[in-house]
Amino acid sequence: MTTPLVRFAPSPTGYLHIGNARPALLNFLFARREGGRFLLRLDDTDRERSTEEFAGAIREDLSWLGIAPNLFARQSERTASYEAAKETLIGQGRLYPCYETPEELDRRRKRQLGRGLPPIYDRAALNLTDEERVAFEGQGRRPHWRFKLDHRVVAWNDLVRDESHVDCASLSDPVLIREDGTVLYTLPSVVDDAELGVTHVIRGEDHVTNTGVQVQIFEALGYPVPVFAHHNLLTTADGEGLSKRLGHLSLRSLREAGFEPAAVDSLAVLTGTSEAVRAVPTLDELAGLVDFGRISRAPARFDPSELDVINAQIVHTMPFAEARERLLALGIPEETAESLWTVVRANLVKVADAAEWWRVVAGPVSPVIQDAAFLETALSLLPAGPFDATTWKSWTEAVKQATGAKGRSLFMPLRLALTGLDHGPDLAGLLPLIGRERAAQRLAGETA
Ligand code: GLU
Hints:
By secondary structure, the chain is α/β, with parallel strands linked by helices. About 45% of the residues lie in helices and about 10% in strands. The chain has helices at about 20-35, 50-65, 80-90, 100-115, 130-140, 185-195, 210-220, 250-255, 260-270, 285-290, 305-315, 320-330, 335-345, 355-360, 370-380, 390-405, 410-420, 425-445, and strands spanning about 5-10, 35-40, 70-75, 95-100, 145, 155-160, 160-165, 175, 200-205, 225-230, 235, 300. Strands 1-2-3 form a 3-stranded parallel beta sheet. The chain has a 3-stranded antiparallel beta sheet with strand order 4-5-8. The protein has a two-stranded antiparallel sheet with strand order 6-7. Helix 2 (about 50-65) links the parallel strand 2 and strand 3. Glutamic acid binds near residues 189 and 203.
């Protein structure tokens, strides 16, 4: 097999969301595993809606996911190739000019529907005489151009969906070129895939019908047809599709909300497959789990709250070195950051939640006092500093001896006084960080 070349081809008309992360990652991870290359192609033929800001954001968001493209292309710079393809197709009689206005087409569709017929373009423009064309042009009409489909079944062996086919007899001849001469997505995508040497087209199943059409265009232009894989689409738990309008699931908002890229990667790739959805900390491991044969045919439903669960799994085992910068940025002092991290990470959903435990350590904490006499005894038994990892055990042993309290009734009053909270990380780890002075003040009921 030649080295695979895959591509991810977003339009820079909005921010990428978690649903776009799925094809981006499936392409990237497949290439990574197969020793192939990944092309980022900006499908920016819609000049009105494409912006540089979105183009830059796409690169940033991919990089956040861990995707570094090997190659880059943008359709707005490749128009000469599309012109050449247009001429070839016209020469073959496969691309023909049409002059209907949108209103005329709409009326025709309604008539067809009224008669119970499928609203397929009737190819009226194929029968125009030269005089009629000249007359339309004389009225100032400019043609749009349709691709004349062969009315046959196009079949391919899809890496996800196995034997697949589209009956092109049931489709309208697609418009490839607009009145203003600009190309729509269908043609440039084929020309780019062919000229840039794309071997595998991995994209969402919303493109299955396009594949039927595009296979015919590949063939008409004499290009080899790539291998196709159409994956299921991510939807929310109630089956709602993810559009660029679902802002809270944009990759940037997930990043700003403090999610780890590995959590987003894991969820975007594993949802809707026969693999359990779980945290996979590295892209190499995730690449090993990509198997097109195990992608489900049903929609890939996910509940955004799963992100919390997976993120927590990643944070719970995250090495200090990986969290360090962010902990310092939270204002946690360098000399304490590592020990704090070791003690609290198992209690976090996001790295930034460490700030809350730093506050519990450094104060101010308003102690919750339930039994002042008990705490007075505990205070009198508090060892001299400095505290270490053994302090908690020896101290609570002494408090137990003195008061007879054990289990929850021994530990909970101490926790409430020392942290102001009824839950949290292991106090054996937390107590040395709180230190003797603050511990003593809190046991005495002072805010410290
Ligand atoms: N620009 C197209 C899209 O975002 C690309 C589809 C494809 O992968 O061919 O849907």
